[in-house]
Amino acid sequence: MTQICRLHPATDLPEPDLLDRFTKLASSLVSDVFDRWSGATGVMPLAGVADDQVIAAPAVTVRTRPGDNLVVHQALEEARPGEMIVIDGRGHLDRALLGALMVTYAKRRDLAGIVVDGAVRDIADLRQIGLPVFAAGVTHLGPYKNGPGELRCRVSIGGVPCDDGDIIVGDVDGVAVVPRARAAEIVELAEAKAAAEQAEFEAIDDDRWDRTWLAEALRVEEVH
Ligand SMILES: O=C([O-])CC(=O)C(=O)O
Ligand SMILES: [Mg+2]
């Protein structure tokens, strides 16, 4: 039986230079300069992300019925090399939305990785495959394939809105979502924050880290 899969048109891919600049920044820097607002919660790196690695890639968004991956299979066909599939499974952890077969295929198609607000399975194999996979959990229970779903639409990932073509910045701390229209501004602010943090590390080493703000921020009550 034919199932509904709403498919919106693809966006232009971002400049490789812009993505390259994001790969030199931690996800924490990106979410910090975004008013500590853009980080998805509960979506963690489960496979294929090294300690010193930052992945920055445009999102192919997928909204699926929780526990059903029909439209995720269609996303594997639609996604272009270098794109990151971002699946809104509404955080349900009772059925895996993908496993080793699908991740092997995604790697074969040169995708940048997969983010799932939901569960995955075959985790030992996923670690071997090496494609970055961020997810909210793991279960052996498999998905149904009945639909419906939607591709390249607005989704929610760990409580954060994500539009198709937004830039996903992922590392061992998790995933930040950068709206496409603000990417140039955010990368510049995050680079400045990286430089400021570097100066703070040097100040700690030299024992001259400014702590004066603490006394101003804190009202101390002595307890006797
Ligand atoms: O069966 C499925 O649809 C998901 C899965 O385990 C795989 O991709 O290996
Ligand atoms: Mg499997």
Automatic annotation (TrEMBL):
Q: Where does Mg(2+) bind?
A: D122
Q: Which cofactor does it need?
A: a divalent metal cation; Mg(2+)
Q: Which GO terms describe its molecular function?
A: 4-hydroxy-4-methyl-2-oxoglutarate aldolase activity; metal ion binding; oxaloacetate decarboxylase activity
Instruction: Extract the coiled-coil ranges from the record.
Output: none
Q: Identify the keywords attached in UniProt to this record, alphabetized.
A: Magnesium, Metal-binding
**Which domain of life does the protein's organism represent?**
Bacteria
Family membership, please give it: Belongs to the class II aldolase/RraA-like family.
**Assembly and binders:** Homotrimer.
**Name this polypeptide is given:** Putative 4-hydroxy-4-methyl-2-oxoglutarate aldolase
Q: Which organism is it from?
A: Ilumatobacter fluminis
